[in-house]
Amino acid sequence: MNVTTILLDFALASVFILIGQLIRAKVKLVQQYFVPASMIAGFLALALGSQGLNIVPFSKSIGSYSGILIILVFAAVGIGGFSFSKKGFKAEVDRVGSYFSYKVLAQSIQFCLAPLFSIAVISKLFPQISYGFGLCLTAGFSGGHGTAAAVGSVFAKLGFADGTDIAMTCATVGILSGIFGGLAFINIGTKRGWTKYIKNFAFISGDLRTGLIAPDHRTSLGKETISSMVLDPIAFHLAILLVASGVGVVLNKYIETNFHIELPSYLLAFIFSFLLFIVFKKTGVSEYVDNNLISRLSGTATDYLVFFGIASIKISIIVKYAVPLLMLLIVGELIVFITLMYFGPAMNKGSWFERSIFVFGYCTGVFAIGFILLRIVDPENKSKTLNDTALAGPLTTPFELFGWSAGPIMLLNGQHWTFIGIYILITLGCIAVNKIFHWWWLKEPLDRPAVGDE
Fold first, then answer.
1. What is the distance in angstroms between the CA of the first residue and the CA of the last residue of the chain?
2. Cα(248)–Cα(251) distance, rounded to whole angstroms?
3. For residues 323 and 105, what is the distance between their CA atoms, to the nearest angstrom?
């Protein structure tokens, strides 16, 4: 593979992504179900590439791009840093505390139950199945295509080469579940009085449906913090992300060579970029780092990651694991259903449906799916879900990072019950905390009042 090959792969990917956006903008059926343009593009490429009709000449390297792009995405998360609002937290501790606990539980329950079912049931029926099989479901559902690529790359190093394709398939099914399942739940919720801010979703704005933003709704991508006469602002922000990503890769190779410890490059990139965030904060450099631009660069990498992740899925591997994968996906769907319909109203008091449907979208794919579902049921964020997500996000990150980094290693190196036990304890701990602090509202009616009206 050479530089020209990479350029041609991304050029072809760009053609498909543009076609995907055109389809999203023009086809009513696609608009109705909010299918992302990058996902449409990925399926088209999968059908026309070497796995399908073999018309489009992608190189054999397209399966490796997702593992590289995810490093950039995690670097962007670290550079974005964390911020807390102590005053807001203290003033609304019940709402934020219960939501934080619910958000942790929504992910920890996937970390424990999916691997548990895989090891206790699937591996007994299919002895050749890797003990990491169940984590592929969690990586795809709770993490999305980016995390699926990251976890898959670690599995590959540990000898579970099929992990990437399985995790990518789970991520694709997860996003589709988030979209179609989310819309189905919203339809039920509006009819039964669970939604507090809309009566139906027939009036959804055109920009959400088509992806094309009207002139009077457009906002700036970011601010020019660096003079373009000296250095283009996008080049400046991209350079920061690439430096952090490169350091992550170099550190990974250094640690592996000298200490024989395999750590994910994306995790090391995240840690280094977060250290950069702290240094930038102390030195005043952060004033010249625009988080909107960082977010847009991360979003760009994610769109291409989703495309390559779907386009490079090996259909033969999916066929090979068809029965155990179907079993795992059914259990995954059951987990997210219970999380939404049992723990959602139990651990969120006011506007429980709006807050729970966001977490449902987030835990079946990506933040964007949760955001779309939330905008449908709460277009003005009256439930304060996004505010509480911003506050709880930094606190939930360690629980996720441990699972993504330590999970593959522990599951494949004889520590599977320890890993599952840790997340069972976290799940039970979330329930216990909510009951101790009287944040348990299971017996409240499902058509209860909104946030602020309790």
1. 61
2. 5
3. 28
d(CA 63, CA 167): 13
Tokens at 8, concatenated: 């041609």
- The whole-number pLDDT of residue 83 equals 56
The token duo for 40 is 């449409």
Q: Look at 254 and 90; give whichever has higher pLDDT.
A: 254
> Token pair for residue 128?
């050749």
pLDDT in tens, 121-156: 999 999 999 999 999 999 999 888 878 988 998 999
Asked if 349 and 95 touch (Cβ cutoff 8 Å), the reply is yes
Question: What is the pTM assigned to this prediction?
Answer: 0.76
Cα(410)–Cα(359) distance, integer angstroms: 27
Classify the C-alpha dihedral 378-381-383-386 as positive or negative: positive
What φ, ψ does residue 212 adopt, rounded to 5°?
-100, 120
pLDDT for residue 88: 46
Contacts of 138 (CB under 8 A, 6+ apart): 107, 110, 111, 114, 115, 403, 407
pLDDT at 358 over 50: yes
The string over 45-79, giving b where at least 16 C-beta atoms fall within 10 Å of a residue's C-beta and e elsewhere, is bbebbbbeeeebebbeebbbbbbbbbbbbbbbbbb
